[in-house]
Amino acid sequence: MSVMPGQNQKDIVLEAGGLRLNSAVAGDIPISPALLKFDIMTAGPEANRVMVAADLPANEIITLNAGTYHIISRFGSINATVRADLRVEPGELTEATLYHHASEVSFKLVSEEGGEAIADVEWTVKTSDGATVFSERGAFPATVLAEGEYLVLAKLGDQVYNREVQIQAGSPREIEVLSTIY
């Protein structure tokens, strides 16, 4: 295109649009933006997908060519992931909220229900098939877990205490492991 002296006007249609992503826990429970990251990939068979943008924060507007994209929403860093294919229309802002079936959880080893957390505990969380998904040392560790059954292990010195838990989508919750048996 050449621009000449005088009045110039040319309408150009860009085949592009915007995309703004957010996530919530099933039931419209908001998720802290600090715990969310999004990846945008080209659509199509998984083996042929190409990363377009990685580790985007929630609510950021990204400009993309019009078309269909594969979106991955990560809530926390362990196993709470949601995927969706979204279409970006030319000249429009597409806003989408993806719903996770997960919950924020924190752990504490206590000598009695509702008691104070015991310090210097080595924590391990395993899935129902025995895979370790979380391990940390401390009095009050926290993470995000997808819905499912888990075994929580709390090691204090040579003693290991455990509790089986069922994680359901919802508000943050605290899981107590008792250091005594009644």
What is shown here, in short?
By secondary structure, this protein is mostly beta strands.
Give a verbal description of the structure.
By secondary structure, the protein is mostly beta strands. The protein has strands at residues 16-25, 29-30, 36-42, 51-56, 61-65, 67-75, 80-88, 93-100, 102-110, 121-127, 132-138, 142-146, 148-156, 159-167, 173-178. The protein folds into two domains: 16-100, Immunoglobulin-like; 102-178, Immunoglobulin-like, CATH 2.60.40.10. Strands 1, 2, 5 and 8 form a four-stranded mixed beta sheet that branches. It is built from no helices and 15 strands. It starts with 15 loop residues before the first strand and ends with a strand.
Features:
182 residues; mainly beta; Immunoglobulin-like; 2 domains; 4-stranded mixed sheet; elongated
